[in-house]
Amino acid sequence: MNAIARWLVLLLSLGVAGYGLFAYFALPPGSTVAPEMRAAYAAHPVRILVHVVASAVALLVGPLQFFPAVRAQRHLHRALGYIYFVAVAVGGLAGLATAFIAYGGLVARAGFGLLALVWLLSTFLAVRAARAGDFARHEVWALRSFALTFAAVTLRIYLGTFMAAGVPFPVFYPLLAWLCWVPNLLVIEWFVLRATVAPR
Ligand code: HEM
Questions:
Q1: What is the arithmetic mean of pLDDT over 179-184?
Q2: Angstrom distance (rounded) from CA 12 to CA 155
Q3: Which of 84, 94, 116, 186 is the most buried (most CB within 10 A)?
Q4: The pLDDT value given to residue 199
Q5: Burial track 145-171 (b if 16+ CB lie within 10 A, e otherwise)
Q6: Which of 55, 88, 154, 178 to mutate to test the pocket of ligand 1 (most atoms within 8 A of CB)?
Q7: Domain spans of the chain, in order of start
């Protein structure tokens, strides 16, 4: 990742993490979402609040790990890595619980539920590879994990685009639950494949 991409990812991540914390802790929770979503969150406040806080931590910490200056300080990289791991574990489990009450029917619930599972799994495999000293494997799983964390950003980019295009919310929202993360993973797989076929 080049320097411009690193800063762009960091700024977009800060923006969405800031949105989550502001919208759920400074405003009445759910005031920024559709009435059906607000009602579901009001009925199950713990899962959405835990999800927002823990996932925001993952979104704040994750991009820092791509900065060479951070990775060069191994203790810092390791400490941030464990904070990220705990944040994803908590945010992912709460995200999985939230998937059961998500707006958009079965298609949206399946999309968010699967995202939560692959997010948890990729992050666990990244930590396991690092602990085993397999840093090449660690890097690939960490990239996959963050591509999934970044789904929080891509979801809101697509959301704004569909709204600006005048597509009705109930039509595009179930699609977002898949669109926010499947292309992100495909981009990473393309980079991994390219590096494998033509090693640097
Ligand atoms: C990557 C794995 C993630 C999964 C599986 C996931 C899952 C979910 C689900 C199922 C919902 C409920 C959607 C609905 O009611 O229709 C939700 C909402 C939400 N999530 Fe996540 N999420 C993830 C990442 C994140 C991250 C990294 C953040 C960063 C802050 C975040 C912040 C939020 C917020 C603020 C909401 C409430 C809806 C809104 O105000 O836009 N999520 N998430």
A1: 98
A2: 12
A3: 84
A4: 57
A5: bbbbbbbbbbbbebbeebeeeeeeeee
A6: 55
A7: 3-197
The mean per-residue pLDDT over the stretch 99-107 comes to 97
Residue 73: phi and psi, rounded to 5, are: -95, 95
Between the two ends of the chain, the Cα-to-Cα distance in Å is 14
Pocket test residue of 19, 31, 41, 52 for ligand 1, highest count of atoms within 8 A of CB: 52
Between the CA of residue 148 and those of 26, 46, 74, 168, 197, what are the distances in Å? 26, 23, 24, 26, 24
CA-closest candidate to residue 123, choices 147, 107, 101, 156: 147
From the CA of 149, give the closest atom in ligand 1: 1
Instruction: Report how far residue 167's alpha carbon sits from residue 176's, in angstroms, rounded to the nearest whole number.
Output: 12
What would the two tokens of residue 196 be? 């494998």
Give the pLDDT confidence of 7-22 residue by residue, as tens digits: 999 999 999 999 999 9
Instruction: Quick: pLDDT tens for 122-137.
Output: 999 999 999 999 999 9
Question: Model pTM?
Answer: 0.94
